[in-house]
Design brief:
The complex is a heterodimer of chains A (423) and B (288). Chain A is of the alpha/beta class and 423 residues long. Chain A folds into two domains: 171 residues, D-Maltodextrin-Binding Protein, domain 2 (3-Layer(aba) Sandwich), CATH 3.40.190; 222 residues, Periplasmic binding protein-like II (D-Maltodextrin-Binding Protein, domain 2), CATH 3.40.190.10. In chain A, the strands form two sheets. In chain A, strands 5, 6, 7, 8, 9 and 11 form a six-stranded mixed β-sheet that branches. Chain A has a five-stranded mixed β-sheet with strand order 2-1-3-10-4. Chain A starts with a helix and ends in a 6-residue tail after the last helix. Chain A is globular and about 85 Å long. Chain A is built from 19 helices and eleven strands. Chain B has 288 residues and is mostly helical. Chain B has a domain of 189 residues: Orthogonal Bundle (MetI-like fold), CATH 1.10.3720.10. In chain B, strands 1-2 form a two-stranded antiparallel sheet. In chain B, a hairpin with a 4-residue loop joins strand 1 and strand 2. The longest helix of chain B is centred in the N-terminal third of the chain and has 29 residues. Chain B is globular and about 75 Å long. The two termini of chain B are 22 Å apart. The chains are: A alpha/beta (423), B mainly alpha (288). At the A-B interface, helix 3, helix 18 and helix 19 of A face helix 13 of B.
Chain lengths: 423, 288
């Protein structure tokens, strides 16, 4: 009996010690995407942070795309937000009522390190509310270098050259343009990444579009995006089963040389690297060609972000984490497990030499300053049905002009919801 | 009967159920009528009158959606009734393996719709899917089940029937077993064949279970959402959109007011179709 008593007391003591130790460490909850391709890099940053500070980070996962957005909106309405949140930048983030729901970071010492172009897409006019969480994604055409070498093709600078390349690839019995419309969001890329070309033809488009003065259907340069989606299908350059091909299958087709081109942004590179590490450097990148060879550039997305909801009870600790994330130590940890798939939206970061070939190609455009931000970062007007409308264009169910008119109607809802003037 | 009930059970017993019903059904229903008239962001709202209804009803995909919902509801309902009835009649005979067969046919019902959707999406892949591989083995070139705009809706309807026919069959079995055996005995004495048995006794006397199946399958079909969402997301383009998937897309876009207005429209459509149908069906019912 006595022995048992001793054992019990000993056990309790151990529990108390462990409990006391755990209580010394703070815990932050981070609402994170469940399918983050760079989770390995993020885990490395978290591990380095936990080693340096007495703060633990626990992940709570959410789905991507609009399901995740609804989850976050619901949790904001229910006052049930975590300490850290991963979210899209630009119009999607700005509808969350930033001033009311998130902690302003503009007075923080780390604020100066972040690029102004990024701050503007996580701001509501006053201050800014998040730090960049990934490298900057670049939209354009990813291509298989082996196919280009075999067929002796050159990187196209105009849409016409691009089609000529496609013709040769088709003649060689390969898929010229990979279409993965089973994941319908991927159908939008030829349109969205054409924004550099649209902007060079019509520099004020975003402004006029927001003010309800310019439309996709009546702006020839804007209509080109829909036309390009249809053209690659109508000429037989796409794979035979676009509606059954997923984003994952498309990656495998590109990496294994079944398909030559995949219109996509560089965020896909980490995923390809995860599944086909020995093939990643067979993949290159070039800007989506426009109509003239001397105006050739890329469309930039803004990286997703991490923010601190105002309802967090541990704002000081959460700020420490953000500070660490973009510090030299944080970035070193990020890059310790694999190269980033693009440039960071943080000033003066030295990139490692082990960058993927396609990332190097993409960064060259940024260094040459041949970039335009994607439309969604310049205008809050984005319709929810764009993926399906692009699929309609991509399967030639409707003409490009009909698709453009349909999309113009679709954005009306968003404009009204945001109560924009002129709608 | 009613006086007996009120003597035995006090109305207090009714209160817990009433509270739950009011809290989770009545209050949200009336709130949704209200929010359908507003621009709503979950945390605040402003009144816009009938604008949401105008936007929803002029949604370009809506006429496709309405037509698809009707086609989907009618075709799944008809197939479930016919196949369900025949299976039930067959499995009410003195078959040795009938318990086993009943379980097999009922089994898909207990599967998660999402799992069924994912499974059939891969089975229906045009070149690598098991269905088309099997068809190719006997020399038939199978269609692109989910990728062909003309096929997609019907492919999903077929899967819905596969999944839901078990419930229909079970209801029919219950109805058929409730038919008193003396009707059959009378028919046998009169020298009727087994076709006569099916046509003149089983079919008319399982009318009430048939009504339940029709109502359940039709309303289920009209508001069907999960299977189509997993398998096609309303695609290709908008060709297999149903009313419910259009509403869900409004919700996904963050247009909570418009999607609530869409739900009010769906509620009205279901009522307009279901109430007269129920009245008609109960009129032709026969008492055992």
């Amino acid at each position: 009996m006595k022995k048992r008593m001793i054992a019990f007391v000993a056990a309790m003591t151990v529990l108390m010690v462990v409990g006391g130790y755990a209580a010394d460490r703070q815990k932050l909850v981070w609402l994170q995407w469940s399918n983050e391709p760079q989770q390995k890099n993020i885990d490395a940053v978290v591990a380095a942070f936990q080693a340096k500070y007495p703060i633990d980070i626990e992940f709570d996962f959410k789905p991507g795309s609009s399901e995740g957005e609804n989850l976050v909106k619901t949790r904001i309405a229910a006052n049930d937000m975590p300490d850290l949140l991963t979210y899209n930048s630009g119009s999607l983030f700005q509808v969350l009522n930033l001033e009311k729901n998130f902690v302003d970071l503009s007075k923080e010492p780390f604020a100066d390190k972040i690029l102004d172009s990024f701050k503007s897409v996580v701001s509501s006019g006053k201050g800014f509310y998040a730090i960049p969480y990934q490298p900057i994604p670049v939209g354009g055409i990813l291509y298989n270098k082996k196919i280009y070498a075999q067929l002796g093709l050159k990187i196209p600078k105009t849409w016409k050259d691009f089609l000529a390349n496609c013709e040769k690839i088709k003649a060689a019995g390969k898929v010229a343009v990979i279409a993965s419309y089973k994941d319908d969001w991927t159908a939008q890329l030829l349109l969205l990444a054409d924004y550099y070309n649209l902007q060079t033809a019509y520099p004020k488009f975003a402004q006029d579009y927001t003010a309800n003065k310019a439309k996709f259907a009546t702006t020839p340069a804007a209509l080109r995006g829909f036309e390009k989606i249809q053209e690659v299908f109508a000429k037989g350059y796409t794979n035979k089963e676009p509606m059954s091909t997923t984003y994952d299958m498309a990656q495998s087709m590109l990496a294994n040389g079944e398909g030559a081109h995949y219109p996509m942004a560089t965020w896909v590179l980490s995923a390809i690297n995860q599944n086909f590490p020995d093939k990643i450097n067979d993949i290159g990148f070039f800007a989506q060609p426009g109509d003239s060879a001397d105006k050739n550039g890329v469309t930039l997305w803004m990286p997703t972000n991490i923010s601190i909801p105002k309802t967090s009870k541990q704002i000081v600790a959460a700020k420490k984490f953000l500070d660490f994330f973009i510090s030299a130590d944080g970035l070193a940890a990020y890059m310790s497990v694999g190269a980033p798939d693009g440039a960071f939206a943080i000033k003066n970061v030295k990139m490692p030499d082990s960058l993927f070939a396609a990332t190097k190609d993409a960064i060259a455009y940024i260094d040459a300053n041949k970039t335009a931000p994607a439309l969604e970062f310049l205008s809050p007007v984005k319709g929810p049905n764009l993926p399906q409308i692009c699929v309609e264009a991509g399967l030639a169910l409707k003409t490009p002009a009909e698709c453009a008119a349909e999309y113009d109607r679709d954005v009306e809802k968003q404009a009204k919801q945001l109560k924009l003037p002129g709608w | 009967m009613s006086s007996l009930t009120s003597k035995l059970y006090s109305y207090k017993f009714f209160i817990p159920a009433a509270i739950v019903y009011a809290l989770f059904f009545l209050v949200p229903t009336f709130l949704s009528f209200f929010f359908s008239l507003t621009i709503w962001t979950l945390s605040d709202w402003s009144f816009t009158g009938l604008d949401n209804f105008r936007i929803f009803l002029t949604e370009p995909s809506l006429n496709v959606g309405l037509r698809n919902s009707l086609v989907y509801a009618v075709s799944t309902c008809a197939l479930k009734v016919i196949i369900g009835f025949l299976l039930a009649a067959f499995l009410c005979t003195n078959l040795k393996t009938k318990g086993f067969l009943r379980s097999i046919i009922f089994f898909p019902t207990i599967l998660s719709t999402i799992a069924v959707g994912i499974m059939f999406s891969s089975l229906m892949h045009p070149s690598r899917g098991l269905i088309n591989v099997a068809l190719a083995a006997i020399g038939i070139h199978g269609p692109d089940w989910l990728g062909d705009p003309k096929m997609a809706l019907f492919s999903v309807a077929l899967v819905d029937v596969w999944k839901g026919v078990g419930i229909a069959m079970t209801i029919f079995i219950a109805g058929i077993q409730a038919i008193p055996p003396h009707y059959y005995e009378a028919l046998m004495i009169d020298g009727g064949s087994s076709f006569h048995k099916l046509r003149y006794i089983t079919l008319p006397l399982s009318r009430s279970s048939m009504n339940s199946v029709i109502m359940l399958a039709f309303i289920g079909g009209i508001r069907s959402f999960d299977l189509i969402w997993v398998m096609t997301k309303g695609g290709p383009g908008f060709t297999s959109d149903l009313i419910a998937s259009i509403i869900y897309k409004q919700l996904q876009g963050g247009f909570y007011g418009i999607s609530t207005a869409g739900n009010v429209v769906l509620f009205i459509v279901v009522s307009i179709l279901a109430v007269p149908m129920y009245k008609f069906l109960t009129k032709v019912e026969v008492d055992l």
